[in-house]
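Handout, section 3.2

Students often ask what a structure token actually looks like in practice. Rather than define it abstractly, here is a full record for Fatty acyl-CoA reductase. The first block is the sequence as you would receive it.
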Amino acid sequence: MEEFYRNKTIFVTGSTGFLGSMLVEKLLRSFPDISKLYMLARMKGTMNLIERSEEYFKDPVFERMIALNPNYYEKVSWIEGDLTMPRLNLSEDDMAIIKTVDIVIHLGASIKMKNPLHEMIKNNLFGTAELLKICLDNKNIKCFMYVSSAYSYARKSCSRIEEKIYEPILKPETLLDISNALTNGELDEIENVLMQDWPNSYTFIKTAAEYHCDTFKDQMSIGIFRPGTITSSYSEPYPVWVKSKAGILGAIILTVTKVLPSYYVDKKAMSHAVPVDMTANALIASTYDVIQNKSKDTKIYNYTSNNNPITFYDSFIIATKNKGTSIITYNYYWNAIKMFTLLYLPYLFMDIFRYFTLQKPKYLRLYEKISDFIEAILYFNNKSLIIDNDNLENIWDTLSQHDKELVPFDLRVIDWIDYFNNVPYGIEKYYGIKMKI
């Protein structure tokens, strides 16, 4: 696999996120002979791209890579752009670069599941459509890999997600046309009708974006990578490195810091947990597989812990050292009552006190954020889903021993008890959040 990636030019969106950072680290550390790694980034305040790059590579995740590959910066080139803008707001020179790269890995997306539909269309569908149009002019492209989610077709009525393209209730082109024709307010008004079988706008739009990618399969090799619930690193470059507060990680933080008074979860709901370093390895292997097979059909890669499962409940209880048991609630309405009486009311009274002491109220806004987060993960904590993952298992079985050591992603080796026991220490080390364990 090292030889395969030698001299390849790779364009990555979403490189500043959790999985994106890990992917960049792995490529620069384990595949130092890639020709160039182009990374799309938006402007951040008044920082230019050089300053942004310096800040980015200060993250502890890159320390080992920099020690092994001190000239890494020669391989890296930042491209200023915006996935919410036409043509990604790229300059002509940058457009020309993307039209010559070998591999495009499209990670960029909003994961704020409570976002209204109009924002999800803009953030997660429009940018994908624009990038695909740009890539149509690339005669050199060997793979367009779209990073989706194992929950991309996680409807309320769904019990199994297969490795196939699902047809959305509205075609992507129709959604984009509606988005252009209606105001945000008008689109919000019909949101519930459109998404009545979906738990949130995130999964709804992921289905549409995947379908849109599939329509380009005759023009370029398309792959769709669907990871499960991404968690702290397993071993690379260091154990329990973390750069995310999403999903189970957020619930662990809120519990161990004694903020969350109640957590509604189904004991049988599988977490489909996948450590971020293994996920990056699986993504690299999937991209390799798409190019090697040269299939005319879009290849889907679900990446979940089916063969070494752990429930949300167990991962939560292990990580909180059983402290989470006291707040676990199995009834939706009882959970709502506890959240209201044990969190909302105290926060309300604290804000009233702040108001009368001439301080700016802040606790009800904090309650709203916590409540939105808990509601966003509610479906995933309480839905028993079977997610097929045969394609990546087949890749693993055919890899040489050298490649298995180069990109380890076999989740069957993980001792989940040992792993989740250590997750809070990673949160404390890399986030500086004091975990009372």
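Discussion prompt for tutorial groups: The longest helix spans residues 332-356. How would you have guessed this from the sequence alone?
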